[in-house]
Known about the structure:
- The protein is α+β, with helices and mostly antiparallel strands.
- The chain is built from nine helices and 20 strands.
- The strands form five sheets. Strands 1, 2, 7, 8, 9, 10 and 19 form a seven-stranded mixed β-sheet that branches. Strands 12-15-14-13-16-17 form a six-stranded antiparallel β-barrel.
- A hairpin with a 3-residue loop joins strand 14 (about 220-225) and strand 15.
- It is elongated and about 85 Å long.
- The mean pLDDT is about 95.
Amino acid sequence: xxxxxxxxxxxxxxxxxxxxxxxxxxxxxxxxxxxxxxxxxxxxxxxxxxxxxxxxxxxxxxxxxxxxxxxxxxxxxxxxxxxxxxxxxxxxxxxxxxxxxxxxxxxxxxxxxxxxxxxxxxxxxxxxxxxxxxxxxxxxxxxxxxxxxxxxxxxxxxxxxxxxxxxxxxxxxxxxxxxxxxxxxxxxxxxxxxxxxxxxxxxxxxxxxxxxxxxxxxxxxxxxxxxxxxxxxxxxxxxxxxxxxxxxxxxxxxxxxxxxxxxxxxxxxxxxxxxxxxxxxxxxxxxxxxxxxxxxxxxxxxxxxxxxxxxxxxxxxxxxxxxxxxxxxxxxxxxxxxxxxxxxxxxxxxxxxxxxxxxxxxxxxxxxxxxxxxxxxxxxxxxxxxxxxx
Length: 390
């Protein structure tokens, strides 16, 4: 039975950030326990493998949580909050405020974190933690036991179980009296009525989309929409999908967001004046197959065509579920943690990352939370260590 000062359960972004911060600032003996074959697997895939890890437009308004005030305090006003765990590297920003490493290689982020931990932190892989006993004794499915004065639960949520986050780690917190809010997939593809988009599979379009569901605040986003055999995907869809995390509703697609109805109407009327051919009316304005789908729905009436171009509606029937979602909406109830993310029920038990009831918009906000919360927890542990209270 090995003894450590701090045991971090979960080797994702928040767990790695916490470990780097702890080990660079102290001589604490730190252990990361992860059920996977390697740490940082989900981090290495983020941003389509390019590593979108923060956003220059950081704000609590970009998140959903049971405690927005605490969330805002932790994420800070600085988009680099939490990124301080990456030393001597360069980051770039695109026109949407998304921040990437200059390498545009997400796996290099994992490499940098592991390099920072080399020789400073023990990492145990392939060991699923099944129980944490007060005191603390951390026990794994294979019967291994590790002891510590402090535990950080950073085991992720329920989204994308291929990365080892299957939702079973919530039980570790529940054993100490914590509750889990209702869980649902977020930043995920949408299942829709496919009658009017059957011929559009595989087509990508730059659109403005608006998500509408009863009892939810409508959400709009400009970006890619990708048509599929089950409905729609793309970053615009991911960004508005939280509206449908627990409800069905309507998705409105604007195929020509840069142009007003009057301008489009004028162009179409001139085309019809020169040549009365509805089949090719939208040629060069939108993808030909999208044009045919719009005309099929609108009929041979110019005003109706313009209306459908600007508001092509799809009935949303649900999402593709947790296996395809980027993050989990819901988690450990924030009412059960103190302002330092320590458990209200068990001293020296901390939480960081997606396991908490926090999820952000698409565009680097969730990784920003992961890094910022990991650093935030580490700093509080270090403060206690300096004061001799752990």
